[in-house]
Batch of 2 targets.
Target 1
Amino acid sequence: MSYVHPVVGVPPPAFNVVAPSTAGTKDLQGMPGTAGSLALRVLQFGFAAIALSVMASISDFQTVTAFCYLVVGTGLQSLWSLSMAALDGYALLLKRSIRRSSLVTLFAVGDWLCATLTLAAGCSTAGITVLLARDLDQCGPNDCSKLQASVALTFLAWFLSSCSFFFSFWVMATS
Amino acid sequence: MSYVHPVVGVPPPAFNVVAPSTAGTKDLQGMPGTAGSLALRVLQFGFAAIALSVMASISDFQTVTAFCYLVVGTGLQSLWSLSMAALDGYALLLKRSIRRSSLVTLFAVGDWLCATLTLAAGCSTAGITVLLARDLDQCGPNDCSKLQASVALTFLAWFLSSCSFFFSFWVMATS
């Protein structure tokens, strides 16, 4: 089959033109709008929400600024992950694309901010937990096991949030 | 001017084909091998090295794990930034390209690890500094101003390291 058609003012294309690199990575699991991304979001939400609940169950957590910050940080992470999970579910159910340039930029910025806040919250609480458990050896009255569990869950939420950020940023850079 | 030529088995190209976005961002300041990147590296090294020195000048910093971790974290950040500054200087002086795929992947991974370690070090020390200065009001004997200066400098080093990571990751994704 062959066509003969006029092309006005445009030279014939070179033979070594390479397709944009996005074509091969279009459906990589974990990118926005895939089942992998939905799984990441649900796990992030789960870990962040449990970390928040464990911290909130310590009776005098309000007396330490870093513990309050962990509650705020994991709370924001939970809300963001839940919203993104809803968006991924919408994209999967209705088979719509959510990889428009402006949307993907918003995902990348939001993921970076949330991952940074969550890591900061986990580390500031971890610093105090290690101070109490190891440096001062005052773990009896301070619910150290709850603190350690809350920090570990926050780090898990941060790690998964970082994965989502990498996927969003990759799609942003290659779209 | 018009051409008439046969095209075998290939439909005519769409009119809204956009050139790949990498072409325009080839020499964006901050990308590996540019003067902007060299400036970022020198500043990262400076902030991390001063943060380390300020922390090391506190007489009993070894008694708190988080403070030792800040010294290790900013030490690693300084070494990484100095090595990258040397590489940028080499690329600029000899006009060599250091944007090979494997090298840029190494830069992106190294920058991410260093930025994460530095943020973690800054936040764990910040948690304890706020505990001492605000929650327990025990700032007299604890060199709080030095702690605050060290945390602020560590955050500056982290922010600049994050900028380098964004540039490296962008080049990695688009190359």
Note: The two ends of chain B are 36 Å apart (CA to CA).
Target 2
Amino acid sequence: MNSADLGLPVDVPSTALFTDHYELTMLQAALHAGTADRRSVFEVFTRRLPEGRRYGVVAGTGRVLDAVENFRFDAGVLGFLRERKVVDEATLAWLADYRFSGDIWGYPEGEVYFPGSPLLRVEGSFAECVLLETVILSILNHDSAIAAAASRMASAAGDRPLIEMGARRTHELAAVAASRAAYVGGFATTSDLAAGFRYGIPTVGTSAHAFTLLHDSERDAFRAQVDSLGEGTTLLVDTYDVKEAVRTAVEIAGPKLGAVRIDSGDLLLVAHRVRQQLDELGAADTKIVVTSDLDEYAIASLAAAPVDAYGVGTQLVTGSGHPTCSMVYKLVARAESADPKAPLVPVAKKSAGGKTSVGGRKWAARRLDRDGVAEAEVVGTGAVPPELADRQLLVELVRGGDVVAREPLDTVRERHIAARDALPLSATQLSKGESVIPTEYV
Amino acid sequence: MNSADLGLPVDVPSTALFTDHYELTMLQAALHAGTADRRSVFEVFTRRLPEGRRYGVVAGTGRVLDAVENFRFDAGVLGFLRERKVVDEATLAWLADYRFSGDIWGYPEGEVYFPGSPLLRVEGSFAECVLLETVILSILNHDSAIAAAASRMASAAGDRPLIEMGARRTHELAAVAASRAAYVGGFATTSDLAAGFRYGIPTVGTSAHAFTLLHDSERDAFRAQVDSLGEGTTLLVDTYDVKEAVRTAVEIAGPKLGAVRIDSGDLLLVAHRVRQQLDELGAADTKIVVTSDLDEYAIASLAAAPVDAYGVGTQLVTGSGHPTCSMVYKLVARAESADPKAPLVPVAKKSAGGKTSVGGRKWAARRLDRDGVAEAEVVGTGAVPPELADRQLLVELVRGGDVVAREPLDTVRERHIAARDALPLSATQLSKGESVIPTEYV
């Protein structure tokens, strides 16, 4: 496979080490006990949405498919496992031949989800499925958290474009995945060159305060920038005095100056003053970009301000208060024996600790009302009721180990917009609330 | 260089794309204006600690050194920048020869820091320094956030070991860096095999609920695990009924059973009951590991419980409420011209927006009281007062582009423990408060 398909802007020999130690010791014990080949069904779901959130957004599925395809134990990895005595020789021999050969179904990327939604269903032998737990959860928990925040910001921003610029606030490779998830959630562009390289997301950026400070005067800095980047550039106007900077900017770039950026202060007030000043200077088409510690609430509060675009960093890449989801990967059914024809038995944890779950291989469908608006997430085992047959949510992603559902990121992005638009109107309220539709178990 | 030194368990051709688009457009404009070669000093600092935190922990420095060393623009990267018209041909030619040739000083990794501490100082031409902003901040903001949470957890845990097991709750490569930062902050082991592979951190793990559910009975599962992993293993006892599970566990493994793990329920209550039961069964040396949604407060609340080790996931990798730091990379001084002998001029943003900073190349020292306890973080420009000369915090990390300060992770970990121990006692209070020592500007 092409290592460029890994979802990373790097060559990665394998995703097999993105795995918790216990996945391998379980494998060893199951191989030894003769239970490793029992056909098994694992499901990814979440018991709750983050507090106050009304819907979740599935993101990272494309990266999961890449990770599964590339999950191999090469000589270097096997040597490490041997040296550290993680597992025995019989298990190492088994791992050397590992290649996922099972089936994966899941919610298509960009779909919305609710508590209990079976987001991903991985089916195969216990051995081949259990190993994938950690990397699948890492990807979905991270990417879905970012996409959910992005989706709220995008609905708050309405038609105004959002720029992702959070790379400096998170791990350098998490940043690339965050750009991707933000794009799925509705962002238009990113500052992160690696995200542009890997995913083709449009990248943007012009200058920082350091550029102004490098020069002997703000005027010199603006002139240097316009000379090099053209009149369509975006000038940063809050290094010294905003009013003076705007005057200088239009003087140097002319009335066709592309945009000014404001990165501090009371954005509502400053944006109004800058708009008025730009208009008075004849720069009526010059746009205003704001970029200071924005989140979905700040974006919403600027709805009436003369702002043309928002740049969002910290709050996007940290999921706006919820940097991870609580998705889990649970065994929900397994065969009674290693016989491939043995029937599946539903299983579930049953202790009093509150972390119980529903056993059995599940289907899910979204029931709509007469106006086509979602009214319930219906989750069940067994036969799908005929009236929900064409509203089913899970699609085939991997068949017999082969990925069958790659798709362009723009398709995913459009799917998300459509899915969000089909939710009740209260879905995009920013105030805290419950899931916008209930989950019903059949 | 060895790509294994990148801080990633992967081969990465370059770190140069972990960069915001605007760093390159600033470079182009400065090259065009003749200001790119002005000698410049950039500093990394934070204006505040996360709300309620009393100290910060520097982590990621080792990864920064790797990233700087490997920051190169190869043909693939240059081709991308050309195709997307990020910068012009003259700038691409400059980038093709890029190699950082300046100097970096910084707080040694593992040190504590406070608002205004000049954590890292990067000096060279504007052009060569400005490019490093994004990747340096990504690494330090992420890793230091995790290390700060780890340090609080470690002081709450006292002598009991902490196991890092958050890989599934964060981006798969952020997880590796998080394991490293947790180790710096005082964690003992990790579940993440990639962190073991890359950084030599001891990895641990035995089994999950899925392993119990795979088998026809809990008894079968325990027998399979003990047969394969030995009596010293850790059995997970909360899949069905804890009391019955503990009885079965000791029956099968014998009184030398290594440990039992409890992953749900009222851990204080359950730990007491399990300890009593284990003792009654003669398994007095069998340890109890708890692992359910722990943070530093939950760890502290279990101080009086018969618990031998804590496993921490979500709250560790998300920085226990603060998944990023607010470190910035600011130009604080630059030459008046491109002449290498031109004097440096202090510079700083001055607008009314609140994001102001202190110009000038800084030193920092930690002043101690008579008992050797830290009493102030002293930050200044110009000459260092003689009485603080041997308490200076910045050390040389890169000299003329060459890394001069690599060190083993255990050295960093010990440094952190020593630095924390030298703070006033109130540093490790978990309740919200101010910085435990003030920052004084000289």
Note: Residues 1-11 of chain A have pLDDT under 50 and may be disordered.
